[in-house]
Amino acid sequence: MAIQPALGTKDLNPQEVQINQLLTTKLAESYKQWGYEEVSPPNIDTLQTLMADGGIAEKDIVKLIADQPLGLRPEMTASIARAATTRLAKRHRPLRLWASGTVYKTKVDCNGKFNVEEKLQSGVELIGIPSITAEVELLYLLLECLNKLGINQKGQPTLLIGHKSLFNLIMRDIPNTYRSSLKKNLTSFDLLKIKKSKLENNIKETILRALRLRGKPSIVIKELELLYGENNLLNQLKRLFAVIEPIANKHGVNLQLDPTYLSDFDLYTGIIFQLICKNQYIPTVLARGGRYDKLISIFGDQETNESGAGFSISIDSIRELDNIYYRGIDSPKRILIAYSNKRSYEDAISRQSYYHSQGLIAMVELEALDSKVEAHELIKKRGFDELEWLD
């Protein structure tokens, strides 16, 4: 019986690897244009770092057998945040950093078995800017990256934005005994359980109204002001969307503000966002991120009141999109050099050297062929574009 790869992992074929490399390269070009510098966090780190003070559950981390508690990174933000407050502590702020690499996460299947999920991601971290301008830059950059990758409107891209303080605003009048269960009901949009809860009717009605508020940012903010009054948080969000909305419209991205949206990882203390695209009618998360000031304070000197925000893009999710949603790859021309019995292998590699000097892809058929017809058959079988026949 053939041995299959571990559940959650995948053997990539040459075309898939090529697409991954192209997508990663295009993203790196965008990051560099915005002044971000590349870093390389370790694949293996301590559980203390990877769990981010409880922001990531231990069960989500692939643990390793070692003399100290180690695991494979489920994301790269925590390791980069630690480096920013240690090795890069004396560097001038803001720090603009980017990284790409594989992340690993445990996942429970329908049979209750633990599998390892392996994904390639690329992302940026902006450290040292406490104001809303950090989120403005990150969302602007994310939309530019989306455009550079050629994600088009057929995929109906949507940028979903929430805020931890908005969620806390909705929860402010909830008694402590109900908070844990209600948080779960809010994030899962479980109207029935909220209606059946033992909360006072006026509190329950306000929560249900807030829960239905998701959609165009200006409308949602206006409704929130009616429910909770004007405040600094809502004014900051107005400023954010005033900059981001025209850019989103330009790139054909729908903006949606959802006050009850929270991330799977409890890392974030401010704005939380994810970019969603339809893949064969199924919503697929292409990117996610947010502000994580608390995470920075865990690793660094709390008196400095350091701040951070960032996002990660799933390369695999973009690669697996139906190709009508992105421009795909422009494969370079591939030339096969083949020769008859009248010529030699040395003649072929001399011709190959010429093509290589021109920056072209050229490969030599290692054995002499009986005819040019046989060489043309090899082109079809091996996926070449042109034949150089030596006779």
Task: List its traits.
single chain, 391 residues, alpha/beta, BirA Bifunctional Protein, domain 2, 2 domains, 8-stranded mixed sheet, 3-stranded antiparallel sheet, elongated
Characterize this entry briefly.
The protein is built from 14 helices and 14 strands.
Count of folded domains:
2
Query: Could you give me the name of the CATH homologous superfamily of the largest domain?
Result: Bira Bifunctional Protein, Domain 2
Task: Please give the CATH class of the largest domain.
Answer: Alpha Beta
Sum up the overall morphology in one term: elongated
Sheet/helix structural class:
alpha/beta
- The CA-CA distance between the termini, in Å, is 45 Å
Strand content: 15-25%
Radius of gyration: 26 Å
* Topology-level CATH name of the largest domain: BirA Bifunctional Protein, domain 2
CATH architecture of the largest domain: 2-Layer Sandwich
SSE pattern, N- to C-terminal: HEEHEEHEEHEHHHHHHEEEHEHEHEHE
Tally of alpha and pi helices = 14
Number of strands: 14
Q: What is the makeup of the main sheet?
A: 8 strands, mixed
